[in-house]
Amino acid sequence: MYARPFIDSLDFAANGKQIDAQVPVSELPRLLDLLDNPQGMLHYTLQGGLDNLGRPVLDVSIDGSCQLRCQRCLSGLDYAIQHEARLMLCDQASLDVLEDEEEDFDGILADAHLDVLALLEEEILLTLPIAPKHDLGACQVAEGKNKQEGEPHPFAVLEKLKRN
After folding, report:
1. What gap in Å lies between CA 127 and CA 42, rounded to an integer?
2. pLDDT tens digits, residue range 119-152?
3. How far apart are alpha carbons 155 and 125 in whole angstroms?
4. Which position among 90, 119, 123, 131 has the lowest Cβ density within 10 Å, counted as fewest Cβ atoms?
5. Per DSSP, what are the bridge partners of residue 97?
């Protein structure tokens, strides 16, 4: 089992701390439902700091790959994850104001016990396609055949009726 890192987000940002680590894809439970295969590692960097106005921020960088399930053929689809984000740490009132304004960055609630992997998982989920698919022509679907048993597809009979 992988040890989940927790940070005091405001202290982390104010002191310019950094985490540079890897996490197995299998340790991200909300991501598992979307995957065809839970194998793989993701490299992440979490850097605390202050923006040019002195506000606390977290810079998140995630690199790696995972295997999603293609929505056409239901087989594995390698998907590269390369994501960078700057997240401003806010209290609830500041976060409400930030959401009303159209800023170029996102805000999250400052937390004295922030789960780093939950933050990474949320960032990854926001970047994934809604319906991942192979490029056209790259799917492993056999026209009119049952992929698993080589038998005619159950709806192939309807194709014959349609022609008559």
Report:
1. 14
2. 999 999 999 998 888 887 778 754 444 455 566 6
3. 35
4. 131
5. none
Question: Which tokens sit at 37?
Answer: 């295969």
Q: Is residue 160 classed exposed, middle or buried when 0-12, 13-18 and 19+ CB atoms within 10 A define those classes?
A: exposed
DSSP letter at 26 equals: G
Side chain identity at residue 89, one-letter code:
L
Structure tokens at 124: 């990854």
SS3 state at 36: strand
Determine the Cα–Cα distance for residues 159 and 153; give it in Å rounded to an integer: 10
Distance CA 92, CA 111 (A): 11
Query: What's the pLDDT band for 46 if we cut at 50, 70, 90?
Result: very high
Q: Is 139 exposed, middle or buried (0-12, 13-18, 19+ CB in 10 A)?
A: middle
Q: What global pTM score does this model have?
A: 0.75
Distance of alpha carbon 136 from alpha carbon 36, whole angstroms? 19
Phi, psi of 62 (to 5 degrees): -130, 130
